[in-house]
Design a protein that fits this description.
It is built from 2 helices and 4 strands. It is of the alpha+beta class.
């Protein structure tokens, strides 16, 4: 599956648009992770517990989006973007979304 943030896939042409596709993940850091993150925030700097959580959530959201596009019969996703928000104080919602398309190499 080709996933790009642009409107086109270089060297390919879009032959069919399947439609909007997304992958949604809601994650919560466990109690231990929240305690460690709170302690680390006192000293300033990067909160690696949350960085790792969000990196994993983004990968998971992309995987779900690709699975949805595959089920639609697409072989590429164009204009892929992320959106995120907080739910309460302990949960993060990550959405990967784009347009599922069928592409073929240019001749």
């Amino acid at each position: 599956m080709i996933v790009v943030t642009t409107e086109d896939v270089v060297g390919h042409r879009i032959v069919e648009t399947k439609g909007q596709v997304f992958g949604l993940v809601v994650r919560s850091r466990g109690l231990g992770g929240n305690v460690m993150a709170s302690l680390r925030s006192l000293g300033g700097g990067e909160i690696t517990e949350y960085t790792e959580l969000l990196e994993e959530a983004r990968r998971h959201a992309i995987d779900r989006m690709v699975g949805n596009a595959t089920a639609m019969g697409a072989n590429a996703i164009v204009r892929m973007m992320f959106d995120s928000s907080e739910i309460g104080q302990t949960m993060s919602e990550i959405v990967a979304y784009g347009t599922a398309v069928v592409v073929e190499p240019e001749k």
